[in-house]
Specification:
The protein is of the alpha/beta class. The chain has two domains: about 160 residues, 3-Layer(aba) Sandwich (Rossmann fold); about 70 residues, Helicase, Ruva Protein, domain 3, CATH 1.10.8.60. It is built from twelve helices and five strands. It has a five-stranded parallel sheet with strand order 2-3-4-1-5, sandwiched between helices. The mean pLDDT is about 95.
């Protein structure tokens, strides 16, 4: 038995990655803030979302297809503002609210508002929380991810919260979801009319996608490219510019590379992965 044969799979990958100048796998699909890359297209949406929060604009809808980076953007916003002293922020990972009561309880729980048995009492608790925030000049931010999954009845919670006649909006709601989220909001004319801005996360351009890959390689310890231009164009065409797909295809290509003596992902490898 050789030394390599005695390694388990994890140890084997570490050795093979080290051969490529990598301290770790650069294309893990799990969320890791170190690997967050916002290209120009997504950075523009991020800046506008920040503006909604800082200028207290109220309600924003941020749409994008699967894998476009909505949850990544939501987590980034949460991480940036969670330590701000004058901001109360909550992040509902899956806003698949089945009813107005479900929405009121989940948002309340995320903000630390005590749970109640009735919708009216729950809303009174939320409204008191907002009133206290207004009195103390605190900005409340609610991030709703996968908001296309919510029952339209849940919008009654936003309707109630935005009915306060404050000088400045106390609560800023950023709802992230697939394109059908817009149809959910259109069922409630009052809430839909309060949408300040509708933002869309577009696919990455070829240039932005390449910069994202090079960025991830640098974080993992490699300063040089690991894929030639022709091979990357093949992967980009397959991905259609969707960030998650680009990362997945690069991960598969890297697996092929680890099994070979090559040090660069070439066109042959790029064509083989799907």
């Amino acid at each position: 038995m050789t030394l390599v044969d005695s390694f388990n799979d994890t140890e084997w990958r570490v050795v093979r990655l080290d051969r490529l100048g990598l301290r770790e796998d650069p294309f893990k699909l799990s969320a890791d803030p170190r690997y967050l890359y916002l290209g120009p297209e997504h950075l523009a949406v991020y800046r506008q979302a920040q503006g909604v929060i800082s200028r207290r604009r109220g309600l924003a809808l941020i749409t994008g297809d699967m894998g476009m980076g909505k949850s990544t953007l939501a987590r980034r916003i949460y991480d940036v503002y969670a330590s701000e002293q004058n901001i109360e922020i909550c992040y509902v990972h899956t806003a698949a609210f089945s009813s107005a009561m479900d929405a009121a309880r989940q948002i309340s729980s995320s903000l630390g508002v005590p749970l109640q048995r009735s919708f009216q009492r729950q809303m009174e608790g939320l409204e008191k929380f907002m009133a206290d925030a207004y009195t103390n000049d605190r900005n409340v931010v609610v991030l709703l991810d996968d908001a296309q999954l919510m029952n339209p009845e849940a919008l009654e919670v936003l309707h109630r919260l935005y009915n306060f006649d404050y000088d400045a909006k106390v609560v800023q709601v950023l709802a992230f979801g697939q394109s059908e989220m817009s149809s959910v909001f259109e069922t409630n004319k009052s809430v839909n009319a309060r949408v300040f801005v509708r933002l869309a996360l577009p696919p990455l351009t070829l240039s932005s996608a390449l910069q994202m890959v090079l960025f991830r390689l640098r974080v993992a310890g490699r300063s040089e490219p690991m894929i030639n231009d022709d091979a990357f164009e093949v992967l980009y065409e397959k991905s259609q510019g969707v960030p998650r797909e680009i990362i997945r295809l690069c991960a598969l290509s890297t697996d092929h590379l680890l099994q070979s003596d090559e040090t660069m992902i070439n066109v042959e490898i790029a064509r083989e992965v799907n």
